[in-house]
Amino acid sequence: MPALMQRTSGHSEVLIALIDGPVLMDRPDLWTSNVRHLGHQLPATCAQPTSGACMHGTFVAGVLSAKRGSPAPAICPDCTLLVRAVFSEKSNGNGQMPSATPLELADAILDAVKAGARVINLSLSVVDSSPRGQQQLEAALTYAATSGAIVVAAAGNQGEVGGSVLSRHPWVISVAGCDLQRRPTGESNLGGAIGRFGLSAPAQNITSLGPNGTPETFSGTSAAAPFVSGTVALLWSEFPAASASTIKIAVTGVGLQSRRTVVPPVLDAWSAYQALAATYTGRKTS
Question: N or C: the chain end with fewer CB closer than 10 Å?
């Protein structure tokens, strides 16, 4: 990741949709101007800085789009961030991974794709397994695939082996959590579809932006997912002619080899860059 981040901070033409809680934006010293709000009944800016929804949305946004030099990882600050809130600040923040119904999530994904998002970050879980809701969500994910938008979703923090409607969709990059030794964290969900189509990314003691822009440390797959989304955005910034499928294969390795494991490989941003550089524009790989 550091080598790729040294090459680029992203380009504004690459739009990342953050489907999450609202984001605290009253500290212009911590954010670039490349943040847009998708219109919806839930506000995209925080009214209650210490609400669970605001803290979660701000944290994930900081991993992706805070200014370089802030307390956050700030992977791709010069990409455009589209904030589409699905978590209400009225909900009780209990420290658990935030959730949305399949219908709420399907609507948000459709809004993001129609707004031009190339990458969609879902640091959330899905509740309510009604057949209609699942069908709507599956249709929205397929629409994102046919529209060329890459969907990245947190695998979840229940410490279970299995899957969800998100992880089972072959277009979604499911992100499990790993520690600094590249081992799966105890709370991260794993599973056959996650192992075949997904990735692992850092999920322990990640520091990003908290209330009032102060540093906040958080663990879980919600924090891991934006590392993958940010990598995808940086790669698309460097290789704008690449198709969604080409970017996805470079990042995950899916299609290059058959994987039969419940534990996905660890994200390797620089190897993905080198794979694309070997194909596009004769760029140097060192």
Answer: C
> How many C-beta atoms lie closer than 10 Å to residue 40's C-beta?
14
Domains of the chain, CATH where assigned = 2-277 (3.40.50.200)
State the average pLDDT over residues 8-18.
97
Report d(CA 118, CA 134) in Å as an integer. Answer: 23
Q: What is the pLDDT of residues 29-72, one digit of tens each?
A: 888 888 888 877 778 888 888 888 999 999 999 999 999 999 99
Bridge partners (DSSP) of residue 152 are 121, 173
pLDDT tens digit sequence for 135-148: 999 999 999 999 99
Is 124:100 a contact under the CB 8 Å cutoff?
A: yes
- Is residue 252 within 8 A of residue 186, CB to CB? The reply is no
Question: What does the pLDDT average to over 255-266?
Answer: 80
- Closest by Cα among 227, 105, 125, 127 to 167: 125
